[in-house]
Amino acid sequence: MFRYNADNSQQAIRDRVAAFAKKYIEPVSRDLDHRDDPDRFAMDMYKTLGKEGFIGMKMPKEYGGSGVSSLEYTTLVEELCYYDPAVCLLDAVAELATYPIYTFGTDEQKKKYVPKCASGELIPAFVLTEPDAGSDAVNQKTTAVLNGDHYVVNGEKIFIMHGDVADILVLFLKIEDGDGNEKASRKISALLVEARKDGKLIPGIKVSTLKKKMGMRAATTGRLWFDNLKVPKENLLGEVGKGFKIAMNTLDGARVGVAAQGLGVAERALQESVDYAKKRICFGQPIGKFQAIQWMIADMATQIEAARGLAYRASQMQDKGEKFSLEAAKAKLYCSEVAKFCVDKAMQIHAGYGYIGEFSIIEKLYRDQRIMEIYEGTSEVQRLVIAGSYLR
Ligand code: COS
After folding, report:
1. Do 80 and 24 meet the contact criterion of CB atoms below 8 Å apart?
2. CA distances from 232 to 148, 150, 155, 174, 193 (A)
3. N or C: which end of the chain has fewer CB atoms below 10 A?
4. Atom 43 (ligand 1): residue with closest C-alpha?
5. Which domains does the chain have, with CATH numbers?
């Protein structure tokens, strides 16, 4: 066990996740990853996470959450990822998409959607990325035009976590409402879209599930098309032209979440490596007696400590209500790259027993980790944010 606490509140979360993982995750983790149809959303697990109170935990109790702090939530993500990053992602996506509704929604919007998202009854999705707008998130082509009491939406989105199964979309797009000369980011707005009625997609929306995903297979990734979709005017989230700030503010928190994901994966890779190095005999002794292996273990352990410091610090700043965009970017960048380093070293230590998935969890960690350097802003975007704040 290489995880310890910066605060007393963390242990209770670790214990809760360990009990949950033993009962619900470990029996099905392999199946959720390696089943014949890996692109199927793990609906049963999603509902179980909701029933056991793990979804929407940061939401206040009156909105169906548990009102946990950011540090406690970071601990939840770290622990869930230790057991199964893909199961954790089911939870993380719900948190990502519910947060902007709670933070920027009207009282009515909050009451209508947040409790149902927090219980797992409604699946929300954060719908920002487009075929030509990933890192360049301002470059939105999806548009909404006001027509009487509703907006008419046209466009396309891609790489949307849970976008193929979502009931409620936090949809970012362009609304031309000024003289056309505003800064591009100030043309972006957000709409809340009820994508399904009685479980069926409403007219104007089509979705598909993206196939052959490398990892994180319990959670699906979708593509969406909007063709003259009608959205009631009152479903605007926040104000016209404030969508980019809503997206960036949401991503600050989500980046701390990805940092915690990397931390959990790195810790599992280290634990597996230590266990294996003690029992694997080579040239007449456990491989942990060889300096080559010791150095890898030492580097993994040291980098994990540094990563933990960054992740917990960003969380604690968020809890204090301080601006934490810079710390979130540093934590996300470093923790996801430490996770890569650790899964790679774990693979080297386990050799064939790491590369072949039937022998250990290393092959799955290796695949699940890779997206952490890409989603919620690539490592390159985090470096832009970090450098930008020093060079301003
Ligand atoms: N919180 C709130 N507002 C923010 C913000 C943050 N963290 N970061 C920027 N903003 C605001 C700025 O204050 C600015 O507002 P004004 O126009 O009122 O001055 C506005 O957003 C635009 O800021 P800026 O000009 O710095 O943004 P850029 O277009 O230069 O942003 C990057 C560049 C690359 C940093 C940004 O587009 C980004 O983070 N892209 C990655 C998106 C991403 O993570 N995609 C992954 C998929 S989402 S699941």
Report:
1. no
2. 9, 4, 17, 16, 9
3. C
4. 377
5. 9-119 (1.10.540.10), 124-241 (2.40.110.10), 244-391 (1.20.140.10)
Q: What is the largest CA-CA distance in the chain?
A: 80
> For residues 98 and 92, what is the distance between their CA atoms, to the nearest angstrom?
10
Q: What is the rounded radius of gyration, in angstroms, for the C-alpha atoms of the chain?
A: 21
Q: Which of 267, 322, 376, 380 is catalytic?
A: 376
Pairing, β 168-174 against β 124-127: parallel
- Among 167, 216, 255, 212, which residue's Cα sits nearest to residue 45? 216
Q: Residue 319 and residue 279: Cα distance in Å, rounded?
A: 42
Contact of 305 with 349, CB cutoff 8 Å: no
Nearest CA to ligand 1 atom 24: 185
The Cα–Cα gap between 84 and 40 comes to 17
The answer to whether 229 and 193 are in contact (CB under 8 A) is yes
Q: Is 183 in the pocket of ligand 1 (CB under 6 A)?
A: yes
Give the span between the Cα atoms of 271 and 279, in whole angstroms: 13
For residue 376, indicate whether it is catalytic: yes
pLDDT tens for each residue of 20-74: 999 999 999 999 997 666 678 999 999 999 999 999 999 999 999 999 999 999 9
Contact 77, 92 (CB under 8 A): yes
The answer to whether the CB of 159 falls within 8 A of the CB of 129 is yes
Instruction: Say if CB 345 and CB 269 are below 8 A apart.
Output: yes
The reported pLDDT for the residue numbered 36 is 65
Which H or E element spans position 370?
helix 362-370
CA of 137 to the centre of ligand 1 (A): 8
pLDDT of residue 178: 79
Phi, psi at residue 105, to the nearest 5°?
A: -75, 160
User: What distance in Å separates the CA atoms of residue 173 and residue 153, rounded to the nearest whole number?
Assistant: 9
Backbone phi, then psi, for 5, in 5-degree steps?
Answer: -105, 145
The Cα–Cα gap between 177 and 251 comes to: 25
The per-residue pLDDT of the chain, averaged, comes to 96
User: How many angstroms does the Cα of residue 357 sit away from the middle of ligand 1?
Assistant: 39
